[in-house]
Amino acid sequence: MVVIGVAAGTVATLVAVLIPWLPDSASKEMDRIQFVYWFATVISIVVFAIVAAALVYMVWKFRAAPDDDSDGPPIHGHTGLEVVWTAIPAALVTAIAIVSAIALSQNGKAGTNPVRVHVIGQQFAWKFEYPGSGVSSGRLVLPVGRSAELDLVAVDVIHSFWVPDFGQKQDAVPGLHTRLVITPTKLGTFPVICTELCGLGHATMRSEAEIVTQETFDAWLAKEKQGAGGGGGAAVFTAQGCGACHALAAAGTTAQVGPSLDTVAKDAQAAGEPVADFVRESIVDPEKRIAAGYAKGVMPKTFAGLPKDQLDALVQYVVSGKGS
Ligand code: CUA
Q: What is the number of domains present in the chain?
């Protein structure tokens, strides 16, 4: 009996501990979350093992004989046992609450010198702005070992920012600024995922978080800063996340949420408009002409607010299929 109990307990513990249920941690915040998770899980395993073992033992030990039809002895409870089975769980739950509260409060601290990033969610792309530098990127680039304080907002509907390896999610809500602290501990590239159903292109609303050294980060920021003034259609296309919905061979994008941009010449001809006018109109007033087979209200109307030089460069880029 004891042998079977120990064997069953060992198998259950191995399943719990050896299978990688959670992604590998790549941030200090994720480390704390995993600690809380395992703290609670180990307590649960121990409590479950004791209760299950006692139950199985008693079912076996106090079972009735086949021909025994008599009533069991009347029992009026046991005050000592009741105190024990109330006090121990209360102590364990309190311990879990304290550990969780500490982890939560630590995870909200960005320290004295965080990298500040504005995260803008819109159907169906993420945009990352680095305030003070004028840099806007479609990828989240952060230095390793330094806290980053994300300020999230959405321009249309609710989105939710999630990098599984960083362990936290935060909603991006129109008209509201939400906050998230990330302290990356590993170099590499991690997926950024939208985890709030936000429309037709929700599944394509993905980007990447690239964790680099502080030197690489500084060099990247300086390079992007140079590019930010000049614009360049390819840079605008990337920064505005056009490729999340549209295929454009020149940009190497293949998304099919919106019409392909490789056929704009033909589409403009069908619409009876010069191709540059057709492309510009489709960007600033997307509801005017809806391509056959596509729905109204999917393409954001926010691009009408692009600075004129960026809009010109973008139109030129889409028309020619070449970077300028
Ligand atoms: Cu944005 Cu789902």
A: 3
